[in-house]
Design goal:
The chain is an alpha+beta fold. It has two domains: 199 residues, no CATH class; 68 residues. Helix content is 42%, strand content 19%. Strands 1-6-4-3-2-7-9 form a seven-stranded antiparallel sheet, covered by helices on one side. A two-stranded antiparallel ribbon has the order 5-8. Strand 3 and strand 4 form a beta hairpin. Helix 3 packs across helix 4 and helix 3 packs across helix 5. The protein is rod-shaped, with a radius of gyration of 37 Å. It starts with 15 loop residues before the first strand and ends with a helix.
Length: 308
């Protein structure tokens, strides 16, 4: 079955990105069907090179259950965005360790392609290990505001925005790739507690050559920020749906009004035509009666003339 390429921002041919959460949200908003693109599982990965960069591989299902093709999303954090002329496959993990520990803007990167292209997409990170997998239950989505057993890409995008807003600066000892990957992974595990986690090497997550980075003190604050942002997103969707429904009702009412006006116009035109027909019929009857009377008079005159 061919790979679907009809949902902007998630199911397209080729590579989507790299981009940040804000840019991704703008793309996802183009097609409402992205609301029903749900995450199947997340894999927590750690590079084997000296930098020990950590990143996430996220598998996303197409909304139609009859289509088994999946999209693959790579999410990670680096100290700065790549230069404009760099490749989309530039290994951002190469900048993990810097002589400077001063804060710099964080670049939270999202790259998407089809799952079949996993080898090409993950090439910049190789060799790497898959440490943990978080698998979500199947969902039966109906709209963006429902409660589901697995997160949608819209929810993932909002979570990434919240995390970026919470810690917009890359700090070597606090908010680096280890903090970012662990925060995203554990936030989704907390928000969707029915997910099944399998770990082969849990203890080396967030670990750089024996130095352990703790992300847990951010979880509660980010949870509150996410819940608020998600409610606001749902409110915006409801308001947009309300406006669309109001517009639809107005169009229907306008159509009804126009239909009623057209029917009244047709009734008036029909009545006018009936009046014209009746008037024409009366005129013709008068003409026939007059002609008949003239002929009788003429006949009577001829008869009288003959008798005399």
């Amino acid at each position: 079955m061919p790979y679907p390429n009809d949902i902007f921002g998630i199911f397209q041919e080729g590579v989507i990105g790299p981009m940040g959460p804000e840019s991704w949200e703008r793309q996802l908003c183009v097609d409402d069907r992205s609301t029903n693109c749900y995450i199947d599982h997340i894999v927590f990965c750690k590079c084997k090179d000296d930098k020990k960069h950590e990143f996430l591989l996220i598998s996303v299902c197409y909304p139609d259950p009859n289509i088994t093709a999946k999209a693959l999303v790579v999410v990670d954090r680096s100290p700065s965005a790549p230069s404009p002329n760099s490749s989309v496959h530039t290994p951002l993990g190469s900048a993990i360790v810097s002589p400077s520990v001063s804060d710099t803007p964080a670049h939270d990167r999202i790259v998407i392609t089809k799952e079949d292209d996993k080898t090409e997409l993950t090439k910049p990170y190789k060799p790497y290990r898959e440490l943990c997998t978080l698998t979500f239950s199947e969902s039966c989505p109906s709209n963006i505001t429902g409660n589901y057993l697995s997160p949608s890409v819209r929810q993932l995008c909002i979570l990434l925005k919240v995390i970026n807003k919470h810690a917009p600066l890359y700090n070597l000892y606090e908010h680096q790739c280890y903090w970012f990957a662990n925060t995203v992974f554990d936030m989704l595990k907390k928000l969707f507690p029915n997910a099944e986690e399998k770990c082969s090497s849990h203890d080396i997550r967030g670990n750089y050559h024996g130095l352990k980075f703790d992300h847990r003190n951010s979880i509660e604050t980010i949870t509150e920020e996410y819940n608020r942002s998600w409610r606001e997103a749902c409110d915006r969707v409801r308001e947009e749906q309300r406006k669309q429904e109001e517009t639809r009702r107005k169009l229907i009412q306008t159509g009804r009004d126009e239909g009623n006006a057209e029917r009244e116009q047709l009734k008036a035109e029909s009545a006018r035509q009936r009046e014209q027909l009746e008037a024409e019929s009366a005129r013709q009857r008068e003409q026939l009666e007059a002609e008949s009377a003239r002929q009788r008079e003429q006949l009577e005159a001829e008869t009288q003339s003959q008798t005399t």
